[in-house]
Design a protein that fits this description.
alpha/beta, 7-stranded mixed β-sheet, 7 helices, 7 strands, about 15% strand
Length: about 250
Amino acid sequence: MIPAGVAARIRQDPPLHLNIVPGCTPVVFRGNQPGARIATVGINPSIREFLTQHGAEWAGPQRRFETLSSLAIPALRHAEDADIERIVQRSLDYFTGNPYRSWFDPMESLVQELFSASYVDASACHLDIVQWPTRPLWGQLDLSTRRELVAGGIDLLLKQLASNTLQAVYLNGRTVCDVVSGLIPLSVRTARFRGNGASRGFFRGVHRGALVVGCTSNLQVERLRTEHRQDFRDWIVAECRRDLAALTHLT
């Protein structure tokens, strides 16, 4: 049974002025949602979820998500129930197909160590604040465009975070932490990584019974010397464990 909010979101055509990749469909989630006990949250899907580095649409077994052309429809508002089911099934099957490994492998490692969970066994899922890939990339968009995209995506995110199966949530990166902390009460502290002296913010709180932790570092784009990468990830896990322990004590 597809949640009504998900189906409605899929049928909403994106505004043309928001730099959304033409012909794509919204990435409403990845993995087991609702149903997973852990959710990670990012800002928005990569253009690589739909297009190769040469700009061609993924096809065959390499395809990750449906597009307007693969569904043979002119716009999302014309999507039939069968089209919605195909879009949602791609999301459910994402981690058993052709996931974007350079992005999700670091997250999988963190999820395993921090929560003893996995995208692959369906105990974890991934959500985005904004369900659309953009061109240019997120960091190159003007502030008003980013704000409008966030405003259009947060209602679905909040519904997904209200799932009664969720036990914990991880927020990946500064923008995600800042946006979510404006929606639900979160405290923040700063810690310093001994490897290079860099400081990062760590967020924590509780939302509808789920423990929420996050770090302003985006593991996938963090520029680190090779000898520091493993230690840096281990440091983030250790700091988030501290926050999880503190939240568990409070609840």
